[in-house]
Amino acid sequence: xxxxxYFRLHESDIPLEQLERTFAEYCGLNLHQPMxxxxxxxxxxxxxxxxxxxxxxxxxxxxxxxVAPGAGHLGADLETVARSVLELEQAGAKVTCDDxxxxxxxxxxxxxxxxxxxxxxxxxxxxxxxRLAVEGRSLGRPPYGYRNGPAGVLxxxxxxxxxxxxxxxxxxxxxxxxxLTARVLNERGLRTRRGGGWNVATLRDMLRNPVYVGTYxxxxxxxxxxxxxxxxxxxxxxxxxIFRERRRRVSAPASExxxxxxxxxxxxxGNRMIGVTRRQTWRRRDHSWRxxxxxxxxxxxxxxxxxxxxxxxxxxxxxxxxxxxxxxxxSGEQPEGADLxxxxxxxxxxxxxxxxxxxxxxxxxxALTRVASGEMPTSSLAACLAExxxxxxxxxxxxxxxxxxxxxxxxxxxxxxxxERQDFLSRQIGRVVVGDDTIELAA
Length: 443
Description:
Elements (H helix, E strand, L loop, with lengths): L1 E7 L7 H14 L3 E8 L7 H11 L5 E5 L9 H13 L3 E4 L6 H8 L7 H16 L11 E3 L5 E3 L1 H15 L5 H10 L12 H9 L7 E3 L2 E3 L9 H17 L14 E3 L6 E11 L5 E11 H6 L6 E3 H16 L16 H26 L7 H16 L7 H9 L6 H11 L2 E4 L4 E4 L1
Parallel strand pairs: 1-2, 1-3, 3-4, 9-13
Antiparallel strand pairs: 5-6, 7-8, 10-11, 11-12, 13-14
């Protein structure tokens, strides 16, 4: 596998030359191809070399393994490490630590800790879990399609295995995309193990998980033929080839963030509205070419699961409408043409938000522990962090916490950058409930 070394020198007493030599030895021992190192020398943030590494991976069609000496090189606390791991995995990279504990989240829990945890007891548990992993014995909740057998080895669950084979067949033989595959499963009434609908993220994880060809992976270990396969190796390789092909074909130009991300919800199903950017090119009658960029909000259930009706709003229109409604409220006027509820922010509400933020932080730590122990996928941390970010923005007492200050902020709206506008909106409103013809604001 193509490997990249990443070091933050202020996190280590080891000289750079030795870090580079250790990285090269790690690659040789594990048969990885070293592609270079990125080194941030200053205390940061920001970490410019980390940004260059992300840009390098984004500009390549290859998958990478990012090797760090320890979790401390990815962040100074558990939350920052988790964000770095998620960001790297979303870029298509795997992350490991060149340490006795290679899993970055396990490494972070061990070296950074969460407080009130016996390090000696924690180390004993981790050593025991690594021994079980070497034996190919399942740790935590088994993946969809399998169950934990009496001996701790994964056993095929026949009904779920048929769904797994269907997913691979739709993706590799019928060449369905992830959204269309989710739509087929949902329309057939097939459900996930928890009884929910299928979505893009779940299917992507399933199609990229080597567990389905009989390979168990955990704590940086790979144990081939540890259990019965559900799909053959040729089908699995075909799925990975399609992923790489489509990744090369789909460009990822930088796009402006959507102002209502995280606070816009569908009035029909209650799921989030997500921002979507579409780029189209067409030829006019005079043979000249035109290009258009269209931004709009669409129900996430529709985008990722192909359920719910086709609810969309042009981004510019929805954002302008919401801003106008807030302006009317701050002026003491009742906006027309909308079902509007908005509660005045009080000290009690702020205390409630602060308590909810503290609860969200505890949920994140619990989720991090479960992910590190193999009970949950890494992607499940994203929802915890998104909730935490939203609550922190809402509970922060900014310069626009009073109506007169908020009106002043609106007067200088054109001078604000995107992040400042998002912070303002999240402090003024809790959510925007969007229907086909109605908008409801709630604190």
